[in-house]
Structure formats: structure tokens, C-alpha cells
Amino acid sequence: MDLSNINPILLIASIMISATPILLAALGEMVVEKSGVLNLGVEGMMISGAVIGFIVAINTGAPLLGFATAAVAGAVLSLSFGILTQVLLSNQVATGLGLTLLGLGLSSLLGKPYEGMKAETLPKLDIPVLGDLPVVGRMLFSHDIMVYLSLALVVAVWAFLKYTRAGLILRAVGESHDSAHALGYKVVRVRLLAIMFGGACAGLGGAYLSLVRVPQWTEGMTAGAGWIALAIVVFASWRAGRVLIGAYLFGGITVLQLNLQAAGLTWGVQYLSMSPYLITILVLVFISSNRSRSNHDAPATLGRTFHATR
Amino acid sequence: MIRLEKRPQPSKTWTVATPILAVVLTMIFGGIMFGLIGTSPVEAIRTIFWDPLFHPQFANFSRPQLLVKAGPLILIAIGLSIGFRAGIWNIGAEGQYIMGAIVGAAAGLALYPMESALILPLMIVAGALGGWAWAMIPGLLKVKFGTNEILVSLMLVYVAENILASVSSGVLRNPEGMGFPGSRNLAQWSSSQNLDLIPGTGMHLGVLSAFIAVILAYVLLTRHIQGFNIRLSGQAPRAAKFAGVAPARIILFCLGMAGALAGMAGLFEVTGPAGQVSIDFGSGYGFTAIIVAFLGRLHPVGILLAGLLMALTYIGGELAQLMLGVPGASIQLFQGMLLFFLLGVDVLTNYRVRFGAGEVA
């Protein structure tokens, strides 16, 4: 094993790339959960976004169009979850699981003819001055546009929830749907919009996997990324800034274990591959053992069905 | 104006009718899906639901397969349904299934090539213990630290898959297999093989256990105090606490039971239809069983029927792949659709649909 093969500059650059899909998905899911809805279908929406973004990018040659379509597809899929849970009042846990199973089936059906193909990836942005800086330039300022978009989205979500009226309404709906309803806010409409935003974000995250990170389509390629995104929301105790930290931490672990594998660590490749999942469990244990805090942070109506009686 | 009015109690009629309605809706929309990918809808639906049972040429082969596929699905779904009733969301049955197979197979292979009638029973116990232990991880973490069991049990599926890949090319690899990954063939070792009890019917020990599990689960849920406690914890957690039901015990019981049953299902599979521990052993039964549990309304008898129906879509799907060239993934989508439609039409069980404006209260 030769650790000197690991270049720290490239390492950090690749952490940013590997964290972006989970960051996008986790950010969307955080907004959904803030409105009081638990959507366990992130994995299904991500993988559908991955396949649809890939197909569109291959057929049009425009990766950005692929991203846009993936976002729309994610939103449409999540809307089906929304209608089921908000209008037909189905159980959110079961419906979310159903969405994941549906998305996995849909994606492998759609993606079959595209296996092994290569899509055009996003160009790296050429940021004039910053990109030419010696070390930092390659590390932080020579990525594609989606990396920066995801970072901008963190700030946007944070500001939206903290400073805007609409954000306040969304949080109110999540904390007490009955009170929000009594005040005249449209609980179902707010939640449907939040769910669609979450779906679009998951779709973008999936498309980033198939168009930039890998970049290829293989069946089941998300490999639990959507579930890790869900865990990151808990880890972040429903705060945008901490979602960023969480996603980059997990991106770091993934990249590090891949680098260790590439550096020729011969024993137990499988044990390295399972490390992101084990670390997710450890982090969840750590977060939830601090029980008084984590109970306080979760939106009060998370996962509960809202049925207006009048 | 259409309104929904909550029923005081779930409708008995709709409890039975909604799964049938969901199956019909899935056939219609699945037919449309098959039409879109260029297959005749009627032919596709007939190949999936009718031909495996009644086709003059294939039925003799596919009828026994029905039991072979339904066995593990029912066994796993019974365990899951008990947890779901208590509001415990174990969705990592796939991992428990894999670990059961690994631990059970390892226990047997440690004794190879000894011949004894006790080896298979030992392996079954070891398999159940393997699945049980794997399910105890989310269970104990939930009890001790309040960790979310949904995420932990699912993460452990990926861990189990990696362990499977590791052992099938490592410790459990067949020493006489010329370096190929995969264990010795357990179905060919007379001490561990899990053959059809009545030859040619597909009725192996695992299927028999699934039927026994259905009966025991029915007795547990309707006649035993523990079953009552489980249902109570699911429907009214606060009332259950006041009644002296310890939530920790319910959590550990439900998860442990689901894990043990899934582990047994894995062991029966590895000693019978699959034959060996190999990288592609995990077959998604653990996830499909979630659909089976819901389709069967979390009721043992319902699960029995739902398991058979789901097994039918598996076999019919393979047949459709063979005869009509339908992609295998379309069956997965078909199964997902079924769950989705079921959850959607379920609103009729718990709510009454009212037309016209509601009176002002």
C-alpha cells in the first residue's frame, strides 16, 4: 500500500464532487421534513433522476438539459407520493418505501438500452482569477456549475427558511398542521410544494451521479445514496448549514475509502466499501443518543397524516 | 365538492376489496405500460397471471415454482407484518435474509463432510440466529439510543451484501471450486440438502415453515396477549404504555422475530433452490416481502394469498421475458405499481367519500 499516491489537492476536489449528489438530495429532503412530511422515497427519486437525466443528455448531447429533465422527473414522481399521502391520506412510511421500489423498477426498465454508454459530462467552469490560484484554484474553483449551484442552494434554503414569510409558513405547517390550518394556511398545498421541491432536488442529485460523478448508467447505481441523504437530515438536525457539513463528511469518507482501495490496500475491499454505511449508523447512534436535543429539533408533526375535519 | 369523512372503524368490506381493486388497477396500468414498450397488453397480462398456472406446456414446470418463490416471501412478510403492526419499520429484511444464509451455511460447512441427520436442523437454528442477531442491531440501538430503525436496518442491508461478497470469495469459498467464488453446493450434500418433501411439488421445508408461520402468527395476533400488546402499541402507543406494555420489549420481540424468520428463509434458500452462498445470492425477496405484507393487509391469511400472487408475478414475469421478450425490470415496476395503487385505494378503507358541500359545524 502506498499512501503517497493520494494527492491531497485532488482528494479535496473529488470530495466536493462525491458530496454533491447527497447534498442536493438531503437539502431537498430537509425542506420536505421541515413541512412535516417524511418522504422515504429519496432513493427512488434519485435513481429515476439519474436514469432520465442520462437518457436526455445522451439523446440531446446537452447535459444541462438532462439535469433540468431529471429535476422535473423527480418532482413528478414525488407528486405521486404527495397525492397519495396528502390527498388520499396514505401512510407516509409505506408510501415512501413504495416510491423507492417503484423508482428502482422504473429506472432499470428505462435504463436497460443505455447501459455502458457514455454521456457528455458537464464542462469545468473556467473561473478567471480564482481558478488560476496555485493550490486552492484546482481544489475549490475548477468544478462544474452544479457544485456551485448546490452550494448556492444551501444558502438559499437557509435564507428562505429563516428570513422569508413563505419559509415561516412552511415551518409553521411542519410544527403544527392544525394551528396552521386554523390560521387559514393551505397545509396540503404547502406540503405538496415542499414535496415537489424535494423531488426535484433528489432528481438533480441523481443526475449528478450518472452525468458527472460516475459518469455512466448502471442499474442500482445510487447504492443507498438516497438513504444516506435521509440519515444526513437527521444528522444535521434539520439545519441547512449542517446538511452541508454532513454531506461533505460522507463524501469525504466515500472518497477516502475509494482512494485507499486504489492505493492498493489489498485486504478486505468489501470492508472498506461497507464503511460509509457503518459510519452512517454510528453517526445516527451518536446523534440520537443525545435524545433531549434531537427530539427538540425534529419538526413536531413529522410523518403524521393531516386530515382537515372542517 | 368531494370530502373525506373518517370512518369510526375501518370498513370490513373495503379491507378485503381494496387489494383486489389494486390488483385490477395494476393490471390496467401495467397493460398500458406493456403497450408502451411494444408488447400486446392482453397477451402480457395473460402470460403473467394465467400461463404459469394453466399453460399446457409450461404449467407443469411453473406450478411447483410457485411454492418455491412464495415460501421465502411469505416467511419474511409474516415477520415484517408483525413489526409493521406495532409501528416498527424493519425494512432491512434483505440483510437479515443474507446473514441467515451465511451463518447457517457456515455452521453446516464447518462440519463438512460429516454425515448426520442433525446437520440440517442445526443449520436452520444457526440461520434463524444469524437473522435474529442482524435484526437485533437496529433493535438494540433503537431501545438504547432511540436510533431510527428504518435507516439502520436499511444500511445493514448494504453491509450484509458486502459481507456476502467477502465470504463467498473468502472463508466460505469452495476449496475444490478451482478458485471460483461461491461456497460448496449445499443442495448436493446429503446432510444439508433441503429437498422437496413430496417430489415435484416444490414443497420444501421452507414452504412448510412458511405455512406453519402463517398459522402461528394468526394465533399470536388473535389469541395471545403478546399479539394484543403488539397491535395496541401500534394503534395507541400511549394507551399501551399506560397498560404496562414495555415498548422496548415489543421492539426487540418484533425485530427479533422478523430477523429470525428472514434468516430461516435465507437458510432454506441456500440449502435448496439457490444451493450455494455466492455473490448474487441476495435476490430482493426481503424488499418484495414488504409489498407482500401490505398487499396481505398485515394479516397472516392475507399474506399467504399475497405471497402466492407475488410469486405468480415473478414466474409469470420470467415467462413473459422468455416468450414476449419483456425486460425483467418491467416486473419490478409492476410490483411497485401494485403497492402504490394499494396504498392509494386504501383511503376507502378508513374514510368515507362524501359528495356535496359539508354542513358548517
Describe this structure in words.
The complex is a heterodimer of chains A (310) and B (361). Chain A contains 14 helices and no strands. With 310 residues, chain A is an all-alpha fold. Chain A has a single domain (3-297), classed as Orthogonal Bundle (ABC transporter involved in vitamin B12 uptake, BtuC), CATH 1.10.3470. The N and C termini of chain A lie far apart (68 Å). The mean pLDDT of chain A is 84. Chain B is mostly helical and 361 residues long. Chain B has a domain at 70-311. In chain B, strands 1-2 form a two-stranded antiparallel sheet.
What are the SSEs and their pairings?
The complex is a heterodimer of chains A (310) and B (361).
Chain A: H1 8-34, H2 42-60, H3 63-87, H4 92-111, H5 135-140, H6 145-163, H7 165-175, H8 177-182, H9 187-213, H10 225-235, H11 240-262, H12 269-273, H13 275-289, H14 291-297
Chain B: E1 2-6, H1 12-36, H2 41-49, H3 51-54, H4 59-85, H5 93-109, H6 119-145, H7 149-168, H8 205-223, H9 225-235, H10 237-242, H11 247-271, H12 285-295, H13 300-324, H14 329-345, H15 347-350, E2 351-355
Averaged pLDDT of chain A: 84
CATH domain topology of chain A: ABC transporter involved in vitamin B12 uptake, BtuC
| Fraction of residues in helix of chain B | 55-70%
**Helicity level of chain A, as a percent range?**
over 70%
Please state roughly what percent of the residues of chain B sit in beta strands, choosing from under 5%, 5-15%, 15-25%, 25-35%, 35-45% or over 45%: under 5%
Helix/strand/pairing category of chain A: mainly alpha
Q: What is the ordering of alpha helices and beta strands of chain A?
A: HHHHHHHHHHHHHH
Strand count, sense and barrel status of the largest sheet of chain B are: 2 strands, antiparallel
Tally of separate helices of chain A? 14
Compute the CA-based radius of gyration of chain A: 20 Å
Helix-strand pattern of chain B: EHHHHHHHHHHHHHHHE
How many strand elements of chain B? 2
Main sheet overview of chain A: none
**What percent strand of chain A?**
under 5%
Structural class of chain B: mainly alpha
